[in-house]
């Protein structure tokens, strides 16, 4: 009976982690959660904050084109951000969020 409770707790923990996965970086999701708290790990890391120069002007330009401008802006952003995302994920990095 005790084993059943243990498995249930592990299943519940796994379920919680799966729900968090889209909202938390891999370093949190895949950490060893069985370790007693508090604990720490040292990592070498890079944090990137980036701004798209001229973005407001780009939006204003595309907004005068109606729906085709919106579609073009979406294509431009997707192309630009895809290159960034591919580079970060290809280097085993995590993306915490996009803002703006």
Beta-strand portion reads under 5%
Shape: elongated
Q: Estimate percent helicity.
A: 55-70%
Terminal Cα separation, in Å? 52 Å
Number of strands: 0
Q: Please, how many helices? A: 4
Number of domains: 2
Compute the gyration radius: what is it? 21 Å
Structural category is: mainly alpha
Q: Biggest sheet: strands, sense, closure? A: none
Topology:
Blueprint: H1 2-20, H2 26-29, H3 55-63, H4 67-90
Helix pairs in contact: 3-4
Describe the structure.
The chain is an all-alpha fold. The protein has 2 domains: 1-44; 48-100, no CATH class. It has 4 helices and no strands. α3 packs antiparallel against α4. 0% of the residues are buried. Mean pLDDT is 82; it is low at 1-6.
Primary descriptors:
0% strand, 100 residues, disordered N terminus, mainly alpha, single chain
What is the compact description of this entry?
The chain is mainly alpha-helical and 100 residues long. It has helices at 2-20, 26-29, 55-63, 67-90.
């Amino acid at each position: 009976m005790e084993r059943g409770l243990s498995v249930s707790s592990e299943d519940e923990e796994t379920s919680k982690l799966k729900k968090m996965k889209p909202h938390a970086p891999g370093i949190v999701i895949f950490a060893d959660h069985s370790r007693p708290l508090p604990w720490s790990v040292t990592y070498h890391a890079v944090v990137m904050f980036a701004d798209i120069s001229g973005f407001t002007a780009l939006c204003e330009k595309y907004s005068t084109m109606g729906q085709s401008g919106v579609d073009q802006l979406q294509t431009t952003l997707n192309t630009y951000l895809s290159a960034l995302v591919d580079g970060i994920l290809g280097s085993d990095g995590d993306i915490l969020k996009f803002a703006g």
